[in-house]
Amino acid sequence: MQTHRAIIESIFALAPKNELWATPISGLTVHAADRSIRFNGYIQDPSLCVVLLGERQICTNGHCQVFGNQEMMFCPVNLPIVTQTLSVAENQPYLAISLRLDFDLIAKIITQLPPQKISENINQRTKWELENEIKDCLLRLLNLLNSPNHIHFLAPLILNELYFYLLQSEQGGYIRSLLSQDGNIAKIANATKILERKFADTLNMSALAEEVGMSVRGFTLILKA
Question: How confident is the model at residue 29 (pLDDT cuts 50, 70, 90)?
């Protein structure tokens, strides 16, 4: 069995460099780079984003954070961001992955789990240490890219396992709270379409909240992460 390091090195060798690679695994994007790259005006889908090699800076709502090796960005709602790789060179490569969250699948898994009370004190921070169980699932998912014929059968099994562990983690409470708020995920998705359509315009929170039929307070709380 390949070690985690061997999987990371094999995927870096396989991936196109200095661009986003939409892999054959639905929702999984890989970014491998050997030079610094900056993306402006990027709408991040609801996703798990993990840096496996190197560092990157992510800015949203005027707040910037640096994500290093084995750190995860948990983004449960669509979010406009600016991101830049840091200190990247041929001898210091960068590798990160982004897995778009499948809320339909997550909702099905929740129905198979024991009921769990949703805490009123949900931690909505963006930056998390990557838990071992989630890391193992992500790397096994990545390793399927070395065996494309296995993707169709094995990827859904690994994703089920990954979402199970995600729901057991501290982030799971936030996901459950989002799914329990009728229509909020759909409303945020609609707001994202408006953002994409009017990205060059000046839109404030009040205008966006009004367009999707939410209160400013409720809309802002959902967007905060």
Answer: very high
The sheet with strand 28-33 has its strands ordered as 19-22, 28-33, 94-100, 47-53, 71-75, 127-129
Question: The pTM is what?
Answer: 0.77
CA gap 134, 183 in Å, rounded: 28
Residue with the bigger pLDDT between 26 and 218: it is: 26
If 0-12 CB within 10 Å is exposed, 13-18 middle and 19+ buried, where does residue 16 land? exposed
Residue type, 204: N
**DSSP strand pairing (94-100 vs 47-53):** antiparallel
Superfamily name and number for 4-179: Jelly Rolls (2.60.120.10)
Domain boundaries, the chain: 4-179, 184-224
Cα four-point dihedral sign 196, 197, 199, 202: negative
In a 3-state reduction of DSSP, which class is residue 152?
helix
Q: For residue 176, give both structure tokens.
A: 């459950």
Query: What pLDDT, in 10s, does the model give residues 70-81?
Result: 788 888 777 788
- The SS3 of residue 149 is helix
| C-alpha dihedral sign at 65, 192, 180, 176 | negative
pLDDT band at 15 (very low <50, low <70, confident <90, very high): very high
The per-residue pLDDT for range 119-144, each reduced to its tens digit, is 555 555 677 888 899 999 999 999 99
What are 66's strand-pairing partners? 57
